[in-house]
Specification:
The structure is a homodimer. By secondary structure, chain A is an alpha/beta fold. Helix content of chain A is 31%, strand content 24%. Chains A and B meet through α5, β10 and α12 of A and α5, β10 and α12 of B.
Chain lengths: 373, 373
């Protein structure tokens, strides 16, 4: 095991490769195109692991991130975020060299692209089947038709299909809840397909979330999946039921710096600038940022410490509460493993993980100023 | 005004300089040493603005950050975070070249330092007068005495004094609430002083938070203040009463990318990786991440848009809700200003702001791998 001095985000490369292999196989088995979301890892290195597993198409969440991966040789990239018209110059540059897919949810934005794009570009229409973050309701066919009219009358725009992200599956607590969301979403999407596929042969339906991709078996009417979080998983995905603890490929290692018997609290060097303040609400209502697990010679234990949670964060401080036994044996200088509530934001803040074999994994955040971000 | 394409953290340099001047003058007037907390900005450039205003002593929150500022010529640095024994090598290196102050809250950590430090180093004892994050209760004189015994018997350690951070002042809603906390803290600290000053002449009492430093007038028994947040201020500090809206020196500028009439929601390009998920709870119970304000030719309006708040965040998406009038006139492509709930975490995520005159401000996060973090 590498020597830990400061908060360090550890990656178990074998677990990460297994997670990638699982999803590649599942997509193949279900006859789905896998277009994994690369915002979860934002790394050329981890991207190469996908490439070795046969992945050719990817999803990103911003134009600058698309550019980051295009420079690494990815040539079929979907930006699954409502197109920001101020980045038309960047879109033109990318569309001239790769197969670029943009996402829209208004005729105005579609028209702007049609009027300003200089190379062929592909258009996803963002559909909202229940997450209510962004996208058009599937019954809002008037606006969908208006967007398709714009696409139809442009010689540069091509309709890829409908894109949905059921992010609400990351907030539930069981396979049954995920299935309910999935079945409802499938129904709405199949109606959309029925309505549009005659006029738009070859259009696809693309769905996005990790719990659905992992837990569901029936993908009737779906052509493409875009999960991303499964590459690491985390405590939140575990509580949804999308992974076992042993499937989680990252853990934060943090030094204990103080203990306070009056409140039975352990203070670690590891705070909001390492974990992010995105909390998980446990079944009993407790708000946590992670769960403690013991580090081992070559990684960490798959049996987390019962009841020991990261309960509060300020900039560099983390507060851990646990059992009497845990409190007694934990002393300043010990290094605790913490399974994070939300992997992706931690990976972003930590500027990428380091493998348990001490290989630093590259991350977009260390170079993004080069991409104008 | 600079052209905004993507989420951009704007700094009004004049407001920032005024905030620094205000605090420098206040400390001088009250006969207090100002040792500002540099974790708020983590910038050599902004550090130089303090230096020009006469600041000589600074506070940081980690050993790597101490090193970052030492390389820029700062030679009296306090690390206001419980010492992490795994960084003794770094402490030795710094202590050999600058006046270094470490913070401890246990005899074990003090002994570790005494046994392993190779150059003279100064020790603050961390006291908890009510924030309950870390530190010793002032009545816990047995442990305080044990730490002082360690200091006393070491020829390398020197007792600087007691260090407290009343972080709970950032959670209240009025000057009166801040005063209550401050008066209670002063009382506890004066008892500590009475108990220890005969044996430790020259020991100081150091307090830390922005609301106290800004709003209070009576600092009897306090020698040093270490506020940091006042350099930017933010919506949270405004709701405490520590600043007017016009005193806030940073605003995030974000493009609108979608609007959804069904839910009267505006979607911006600007999410958890730009703002952080640290929320502010408004007096009416609403949880928000920021408030909308209009951008102007040379900055932004000091009159934020009434009722228009950043209400939800995912990785790149932000959701804004506001009045009917605000919703009607806001369209994709517009750039909205957002006064952030928490400035310091946004500054960290954005890797420093850019001034309204288009000067990019340096930030530790872009170089921290050079410092081993």
């Amino acid at each position: 095991m590498i020597k830990i001095k400061r908060p360090t985000l550890l990656l178990d490369k074998q677990k990460c490769l297994s997670n990638i292999a699982f999803m590649v196989n599942k997509a193949r088995e279900k006859n789905l195109v896998l277009r994994p979301h690369f915002k979860s890892h934002q790394s050329h290195t981890i991207g190469s692991w996908y490439r070795n597993a046969g992945t050719e198409k990817i999803t990103v969440s911003s134009m600058v991130m698309a550019n980051f991966f295009a420079t690494d040789g990815w040539d079929d990239i979907a930006v699954a975020f409502p197109f920001n018209i101020h980045e038309i110059e960047e879109a033109n540059k990318l569309a001239s060299s790769i197969t670029l897919h943009l996402t829209v949810c208004s005729p105005e934005t579609a028209s702007f692209i049609a009027n300003n794009i200089t190379s062929p570009v592909n258009i996803y229409i963002k559909i909202d089947t229940g997450y209510h973050r962004t996208g058009l309701y599937p019954e809002n066919t008037q606006v969908i038709d208006a967007i398709l009219d714009v696409v139809n009358s442009s010689d540069k725009l091509k309709f890829t299909g409908f894109l949905v992200h059921s992010g609400e599956t990351s907030k539930v607590r069981s396979r049954e809840d995920v299935e309910k969301i999935h079945v409802d979403s499938l129904k709405k999407l199949s109606e959309l397909r029925r309505r549009y596929e005659n006029k738009w042969p070859g259009m696809i339906i693309s769905t996005g979330d990790t719990p659905t991709a992992v837990l569901m078996e029936d993908f009737t009417g779906i052509d493409e999946i875009r999960p991303g979080k499964f590459v690491f998983f985390d405590l939140t995905q575990h509580y949804v039921g999308a992974c076992s603890i042993s499937g989680i490929s990252i853990v934060m290692a943090c030094p204990v710096v103080a203990k306070h018997p009056e409140r039975k609290e352990i203070v670690i060097y590891g705070g909001a600038i390492h974990f992010s303040k995105d909390e998980l609400i446990l079944p009993d209502g407790k708000r946590v940022y992670g769960q403690v697990t013991e580090l081992t010679d070559n990684g960490w234990s798959d049996k987390p410490v019962k009841g020991a949670y990261l309960c509060d964060l300020s900039q560099e401080h983390g507060i851990i509460r646990g059992s009497d036994e845990f409190f007694e044996k934990t002393v300043p200088g010990m290094i605790l493993g913490i399974i994070p509530a939300r992997a992706c934001l931690s990976v972003n803040l930590m500027q990428g993980p380091v493998t348990t074999d001490n290989e630093k994994i590259d991350h977009f955040s260390t170079v993004k100023t080069q991409y104008g971000a």
